[in-house]
Amino acid sequence: MAAVAPARLAALTRMRCEIFQTAYNPTSVRTGAKYLRARLRGPSMIRYYPDELTVAHFNRMPGGFKIQNWEEYQRLADVEEKKRRGKGVPKKAKSKAESRRMSRKR
Amino acid sequence: MPNARVLRDIKARHGVNANEVLRRAYLYVARNQTLPAQVRFQAQLQLNTFGRYTRPTTVKNRCIETGRGRGVISEFGLTRFQFRLKALAKELPGVHKASW
């Protein structure tokens, strides 16, 4: 089999690139083209979790709906009840010395 | 209401979507060996200024039902246990328990 001259092979590659409209890059230099060629992944990424229709979302929709959220109502009522019995959230410490972390015995 | 990790993941997804085109442009410049090194370096510095929730690698496919991050079967977006529950309840089309 007769060896083909390298120049002829290069010419063939260049012509092939011209015909199929691809970039002629014989030395395989990194041109960063793959970052432009790749599809954008954001649009499909934000569609991963299905949209959940909550009461708060529904009330914010156009149309001026006002639906009572019973679970939220119950939660707030429970918090009030706990506060009344002195079982509420502790006061925020004003200084470092007041914090429970500091007063804890080792 | 999804748990905090799912909310964080949703935040990351929206951040990636909002910054994707700009990030790609900088990536193209930074990785292009035909451009001068100074330009590429500046593009890389710009890439480093993007926030944490703009990188696609911060996004993780979590369980749609429970928000669990491990053992998620990607075809259904469910963890293995939720997948089993739903399959047994016949909520997944074309999935049924093997028996032969």
TrEMBL record, chain A:
Similarity comment: Belongs to the mitochondrion-specific ribosomal protein mS33 family.
Subcellular location, principal: mitochondrion
Signal peptide: none
Keyword vocabulary terms for this entry: Mitochondrion, Ribonucleoprotein, Ribosomal protein
Record protein name field: Small ribosomal subunit protein mS33
Segments for region (Disordered): 81-106
Compartments where found: Mitochondrion
TrEMBL record, chain B:
Record flagged with keyword Amino-acid biosynthesis: no
Alphabetical GO biological process terms: translation
UniProtKB keywords: Ribonucleoprotein, Ribosomal protein
Gene3D superfamilies: 1.10.287.1480
GO cellular component: mitochondrial small ribosomal subunit
GO MF entry, a single one: structural constituent of ribosome
InterPro entries named among the record's database cross-references: Ribosomal_uS14
Family of the protein in this entry: Belongs to the universal ribosomal protein uS14 family.
Protein name (Swiss-Prot/TrEMBL): Glucocorticoid receptor-like (DNA-binding domain)
